[in-house]
């Protein structure tokens, strides 16, 4: 009888260990993918001369860049701020996985990012290109990203200078707030033609993240001001967010990008956690479903793809992840996980970099790869690892 009991116990232990291994294996896989992809991107894009990155790989015959207010620009010697920030965001998430391994990387990228910090124009803010190389425009949405990088770094490390940096960036952003269209900030400093979701959504997230770390009501009040402006001016009946409202005639540009809905989904979850008001949880859930229905497209293999620019999709995933941590509904995070996993197998070039189209509907094997899109893959796999853990 004793031997039978021992055999049963051994069997139970074996099953428990096997179950534990099954649970942890996906975490290891996604962690390894994120870390190996970071090493790949860093190796291909890093420019030691500047302690910065190139905009594309390969960095010869780079395509023109079209994400500026004043039209297309040629790619330059180093990347603009937006793609660089993508790498900082990615390392902030890698730090959550392995603090010891990525501590120096995070510190280095945070300091390198300050090469874009313009102290000449007041208030101090971040311009689109490194200040030592040229003077360039200062975009409020870029600054929102930088501020979020800083407050995330502060949350990770409790390094007080990072909190100070985040607050400095926020003061630059609110310097652009005016009463045109009842509030909100424009896209870039000095140009007053529109109030976009990108600038105001990121400012909302930044304000609420600072509040979560400090409990300073000043930032909660500003977060609510930005949130309410976005909700009343750019929220669509489809439960997504439109691109912008024009100051001249109040017309709304009904173009939708996943990341604008993603930032407001993040903000709604934050407000639910801060206030306990279920109105915000309901709003977050409606944005998750609205984005799923609006951006989702069924593929021949049965997947639903929610595909946009890869980085845009990852910002939406941030919102999905935050909501999942609250309501444990895995539908939305799993949809994007299935898509990036499909791309990992079917949409990489001979260097291992991912295509911009994760469905691989066209051959991008010889197309230069944009740093921002590749940085997004690092961040996404690190976030998936955290979920699987």
The main β sheet shows up as: 3 strands, antiparallel
User: Span between N and C termini?
Assistant: 39 Å
Calculate Rg over CA atoms. 22 Å
Q: At CATH's second level, what is the architecture?
A: Alpha/alpha barrel
Shape: globular
What is the fold-level CATH name, i.e. the topology?
Glycosyltransferase
Q: Your description of this structure?
A:
The chain has helices at residues 2-45, 81-97, 99-113, 140-157, 160-174, 197-214, 217-233, 258-275, 278-295, 310-327, 331-346, 371-388; strands at 46-47, 52-53, 56-57, 117-118, 125-126, 194-196, 242-246, 252-256, 296-298, 304-306, 369-370. It is mainly alpha-helical. The protein has a single domain (2-388), classed as Alpha/alpha barrel (Glycosyltransferase).
Blueprint of the fold:
Blueprint: H1 2-45, E1 46-47, E2 52-53, E3 56-57, H2 81-97, H3 99-113, E4 117-118, E5 125-126, H4 140-157, H5 160-174, E6 194-196, H6 197-214, H7 217-233, E7 242-246, E8 252-256, H8 258-275, H9 278-295, E9 296-298, E10 304-306, H10 310-327, H11 331-346, E11 369-370, H12 371-388
Helix pairs in contact: 1-2, 1-12, 2-3, 2-4, 2-12, 4-5, 4-6, 5-6, 6-7, 6-8, 7-8, 8-9, 8-10, 10-12
Which descriptors would you attach to this protein?
single chain, 389 residues, mainly alpha, Glycosyltransferase, three-stranded antiparallel beta sheet, two-stranded antiparallel sheet, 12 helices, globular
């Amino acid at each position: 009888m004793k031997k039978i009991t021992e055999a049963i116990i051994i069997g139970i232990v074996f099953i428990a260990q096997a179950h534990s291994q099954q649970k942890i294996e996906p975490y290891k896989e996604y962690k390894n993918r994120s870390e190996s992809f970071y090493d790949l991107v860093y190796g291909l894009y890093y420019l030691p001369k500047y302690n910065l990155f190139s905009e594309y790989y390969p960095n010869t015959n780079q395509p023109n860049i079209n994400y500026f207010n004043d039209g297309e620009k040629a790619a330059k010697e180093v990347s603009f701020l937006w793609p660089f920030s993508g790498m900082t965001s990615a390392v902030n998430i890698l730090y959550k996985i392995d603090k010891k391994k990525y501590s120096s990387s995070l510190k280095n990228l945070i300091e390198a990012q300050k090469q874009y910090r313009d102290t000449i124009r007041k208030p101090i803010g971040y311009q689109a290109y490194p200040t030592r190389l040229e003077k360039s425009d200062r975009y409020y949405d870029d600054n929102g990203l930088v501020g979020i990088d800083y407050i995330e770094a502060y949350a990770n490390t409790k390094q007080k200078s990072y909190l100070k940096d985040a607050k400095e960036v926020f003061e630059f952003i609110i310097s652009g707030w005016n009463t045109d269209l009842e509030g909100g900030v424009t896209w870039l400093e000095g140009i007053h033609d529109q109030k976009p979701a990108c600038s105001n959504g990121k400012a909302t997230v930044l304000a609420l993240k600072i509040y979560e770390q400090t409990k300073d009501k000043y930032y909660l009040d500003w977060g609510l001001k930005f949130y309410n402006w976005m909700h009343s001016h750019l929220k669509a009946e489809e439960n997504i967010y439109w691109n912008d409202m024009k100051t001249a005639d109040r017309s709304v540009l009904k173009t939708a990008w996943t990341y604008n809905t993603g930032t407001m989904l993040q903000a709604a979850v934050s407000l639910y956690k801060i206030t306990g008001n279920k109105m915000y949880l309901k709003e977050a859930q409606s944005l998750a479903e609205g984005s799923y229905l609006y951006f989702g497209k069924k593929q021949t293999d049965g997947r639903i793809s929610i595909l946009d620019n890869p980085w845009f999709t990852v910002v939406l995933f941030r919102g999905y992840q935050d909501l999942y941590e609250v309501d444990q509904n895995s539908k939305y995070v799993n949809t994007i996980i299935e898509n990036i996993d499909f791309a990992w197998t079917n949409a990489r070039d001979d260097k291992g970099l991912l295509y911009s189209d994760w469905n691989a509907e066209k051959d991008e094997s010889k197309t230069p790869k944009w740093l921002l899109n590749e940085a997004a893959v690092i961040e996404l796999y690190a976030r998936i690892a955290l979920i699987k853990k």
